Amino acid sequence: NAGVTQTPKFQVLKTGQSMTLQCAQDMNHEYMSWYRQDPGMGLRLIHYSVGAGITDQGEVPNGYNVSRSTTEDFPLRLLSAAPSQTSVYFCASSYSREALSGYTFGSGTRLTVV
Amino acid sequence: ELKVEQNPLFLSMQEGKNYTIYCNYSTTSDRLYWYRQDPGKSLESLFVLLSNGAVKQEGRLMASLDTKARLSTLHITAAVHDLSATYFCAELYNTDKLIFGTGTRLQVFP
Known about the structure:
heterodimer, A: mainly beta, seven-stranded mixed sheet, four-stranded antiparallel sheet, 49% strand, B: mainly beta, 11 strands, globular
């Protein structure tokens, strides 16, 4: 049981480049979400999904796109990277939106935009 | 405005001492979560508090939830070095969004 798997672990992008951060879970969790973590600001919600085919915006969605075509996968796309998107990105999942057992977090992707 | 405030932001404490971290949140949520994060690592779930008056304990850590006061506490008893980490609280808003506090960085020294 792998839990929540994020790839890549590290990435350096040039301003304007695009990329996709991958997130996959094998726990049959309905709810998945993306966070970014910046020093002194805790974790901020970017986008989330309550099930396949359903996504919604969080606190800081600008510059990011998501889709949820399967229960297992929830990729995060940066269409045109900016230095302000330099951060550590975490994917999290929960059995349901009620999160009675809490959330499981992936190991993170450290992204640097130069 | 959705806001989760933790205090203190930084805590340096001696081994064997007790201390409490406070987490104030802004909505009527009855779901509150505590996480631990070691440097460069992911978040580890510590406690899930699902109702008013909930109290949970694991080892030297005890968490409680008062939904009327919109307050959760994480109490540390007889701190040891292994507890050094950053601790986050998070409230579940509208059953959709987990809103995090800014974290409390705990350092335990001999």
